[in-house]
């Protein structure tokens, strides 16, 4: 039995992005989706039948108590008044309660700018990190979590989200980043760590970029006050990322161009010398530039 079938049988059921410990619901999990089935109208027989499909959950039921819960799952304002933040999704092959507690202890060492984290289910967790110029790159995080896998005898895969201002709708952003992550996990299990740059080509080749809230907000955040970067990225793309050729086309000193690229990378974690990152930036300006 899957979520779609249950929704047809129980129209009052609510599809959510997380589990709950609320005794008024049975929670049915399928992938990264959760269906909350109200128990108040169920007969005794229905309850007994549904209990055979619902596994008791020890992990991922207390996330309502976290400070970022409403921002991440209920479209509410972030519990801060300044800053930029990213969400890092972690998919586990297996995780028990004892391992989860030990794993939690390591997070503050890995993420000095950690603001919240919680397990959504037994196999899926979420980390929320404030921006810092020394924030770990996707490549760095792949190495760190590879080491953690050895320490805790598990296997993790990650999606490293982009940094967004605290004023944005993190519920909508997470929903789209989860779609990107799920899409990539279905394509291949070989890559340890994914991000928007590495998944955009495959995913948005199938989806409409213009209808993406995530992509539109990213464009506004990266380029709304950086008009010269649009021209730089277009020139870089035309020169296949070659800095010397790009500087020549722009009548710009190579060191000046390098400085602008380094500054952009520091602010966005987007390395325009990497072709995946360059493609993402080019896709954004091609779609949303007036």
UniProtKB/TrEMBL annotation:
<dbReference type="InterPro" id="IPR042070">
    <property type="entry name" value="PucR_C-HTH_sf"/>
</dbReference>
<dbReference type="InterPro" id="IPR025736">
    <property type="entry name" value="PucR_C-HTH_dom"/>
</dbReference>
<feature type="domain" description="PucR C-terminal helix-turn-helix">
    <location>
        <begin position="229"/>
        <end position="283"/>
    </location>
</feature>
<dbReference type="InterPro" id="IPR009057">
    <property type="entry name" value="Homeodomain-like_sf"/>
</dbReference>
<protein>
    <submittedName>
        <fullName>Helix-turn-helix domain-containing protein</fullName>
    </submittedName>
</protein>
<dbReference type="InterPro" id="IPR051448">
    <property type="entry name" value="CdaR-like_regulators"/>
</dbReference>
<dbReference type="Pfam" id="PF13556">
    <property type="entry name" value="HTH_30"/>
</dbReference>
